[in-house]
Amino acid sequence: MEQREPPLTAEGSYVLHDFRTVDWDAWRAAPERERERALEDGEDFLVHREHAARSERGESALYSVMGHKADLLFVHLRPTMADLDRIERSFEDTALAAFTERATSYVSVTEASGYGEQTREYLAGETDDDAAIGDYIDDRLHPEIPDSEFVSFYPMSKRRDPEQNWYDTPYAERAEHIMRHADIGRDYAGKVEQMICSSVGMDDHEWGITLWADDLTDVKDLLNEMRFDPSTSQFAEFGDFFVGRQFPPADLPAFFAGEPIPVPESEGEDGGHHHGEGEDGEHAHGDDDGEHAHGDDDGGGPPADVRDELEAEGVYGGQPHGEDVYAVVLYSEADVDELYEEMDGLRGNFEHYDRHVKTAVYENPDGPHAVASVWEAQEAADTASGFLTDLPGVVRQAGDDADGDTWGTMGMFYTTKPDRREAFVEKFETVGGVLADMDGHLETDLLANVEDANDMFIASRWNSREDAMAFFRSDEFRETVEWGREVLADRPRHVFLE
Length: 498
Hints:
This protein is α+β, with helices and mostly antiparallel strands. It contains 16 helices and 17 strands. It has helices at about 25-30, 30-55, 80-90, 115-125, 130-140, 170-185, 215-225, 230-235, 250-255, 265-270, 305-310, 335-350, 380-390, 420-435, 465-470, 475-485; strands at about 10-20, 60-65, 70-80, 100-115, 150-160, 190-200, 205-215, 235-240, 240-245, 325-330, 355-365, 370-375, 395, 405-415, 440-450, 450-460, 495.
């Protein structure tokens, strides 16, 4: 009996399709606080996967699945199977996992096969590495998950019936089938995007097919046309089909509440599902390693009476950059160059999001250094904090005792005129001497942006709010503010941290 020739193949990203059902009875019976924690855990997990994917040359996405087979679909692409293994286990550590059960899953690896002549020559090393076909194959092996609304996934295998055995068919005949099949797919370019994955030795079928489209009828039309192609009608066997709609992790609360997803942009801006968001307060987040800004009345920033007092002195007492942004500030004892390098990698990911305003490292000659990240939405700042706490050497702000009985202020951000920077630093040293003699003062540091020496902020720690306000009411502070108008390019902005 003749041995048939297998095609050459190349493999790329490992893929996990993780289908989940929700235990709706348990969800409805759970206390509100437990549900909120589950949503926060789930969102943090999924957003972290999205960010990590970009740095690891991978992809992650979330879908609502229609029908009875599942409720949610997580799709993860990663360079190694170990990466998928870690993701799979880490989800089980979230509070959200307790309300879900795995309906099914599919494990595979992206694949390009050498049935086409150009592809075969490239995979056989018979063409230059920089040939155009190489770019095509790389796109197949390392696809980006599109923003398309719909996804359709199904597994399939090639038939082995005595009269219809794909694996006993001559190579040339198989290649003809594949090329004709591919021609049908090309007619849907721009309407349907695909990811072809091999699961031989990994799952129950031989391939996993993922299709994306903004109009689901384009997927139907494509598959309907392919059903009449002999490579399908004679040789294909299919598993269950799943269809879902993509939505961002931030809309998990809307999904569980039975509300429209994705959440309309106007709703997300005007209220949406923001965890713990105040009306106009500064938000700084970071578990045990960051600063939490607290406002007595406004959900953040200085309380109204403090803000009024500062305004009377000509000092802005609200948010950095305006009344509608949120910041997370953490402190690190790592080498400033190492800290900047790591931060810059994260910032590259942050800049994919329109709500990102700014992320920078501020150097403190006496340490610790600081990382400040400013966002237009609180949930975005919350999410960013989860990544920032992974930066090297992160610690709590010096003087911020575990009992939380201290009061902090941040002057965010002092931007000096370029020719007056030295004068500002000298003035700070003078004011620092005044601060050292004031009751209740613990410490004050001046930190400068490593990328823009004229961008600085001042972090202080006090025994109490009253001690801090005594300084802000002092003649020395008033004189400093008046002098500052001559050297600063903008108004100082102050944030209070309990």
